[in-house]
Amino acid sequence: MELYLNATSPYARLARIVLIEKGLAEAVTLKWCDPWADDAALLKANPAGRIPALITEDGTTLSESMLIAVYLDGVSPNKPMIPSTCLGDVLHLAGLGQNLMDAAFTTVIARKHYGNEIEESELGLRRQRAIQRILKQLDGELKKTFASSVNLGEIAIAVALDYLAFRLPEVRWKEAYPQLQVWHAGMVATKSFQQTAFC
Asked: Which residues form the GST N-terminal domain (predicted)?
């Protein structure tokens, strides 16, 4: 298998963490690329030019991090990332993580192309409110201590929180939500998060 990615995409990081957690890291060749440069190989794998993009062993191409995660969960016998015993709860958390990731990533890209003043636009303000609402909800829901085995929802949330700290430190979510910080610290201390840290 081949995975197209870069080192700063939260979406690519989510897929890579799932690879590691599922014991598939050795079965995948990492194809580092710049999705903004219209990389020819990436465009062949995903004409949208987005990462991550996975080429499976039979040559099928998959895009979108959550869909790639579902596929990887199904091809490895390791403990499931989306356990059927708590399917609704896991997908609920995955949705919150995905939405937080989307709001943060869109903010970063908008600033890159239009400057920080874009945050005063209606869409910019809407993204800021969404980030704060999601953080508040996560702080209320993630009360349990970190477990040694993680699921896709927890991975999505931890990646999104790490991306916020990496790209939007002014949000200062760790100071505002110390309980959430404790939960997050346990997640990012794991091998799969250490090996894929943003840089």
From this structure: 1-80
Look up the domain containing 30 and give its range: 2-75
Q: From 75, 94, 124, give the residue that closes a domain.
A: 75
DSSP string, the chain: -EEEE-SS-HHHHHHHHHHHHTT-GGG-EEEE--GGGT-HHHHHH-TT--S-EEE-TTS-EEESHHHHHHHHHHH--SSPSS-GGGHHHHHHHHHHHHHHHHHHHHHHHHHHHH-GGGGGSHHHHHHHHHHHHHHHHHHHH--SPPPSS--HHHHHHHHHHHHHHHH-GGG-HHHH-HHHHHHHHHHHTSHHHHHT---
pTM over 0.85: yes
At 54-104, the pLDDT tens digits run 999 999 999 999 999 999 999 998 999 999 999 999 999 999 999 999 999
The CATH number covering residue 67 comes to: 3.40.30.10
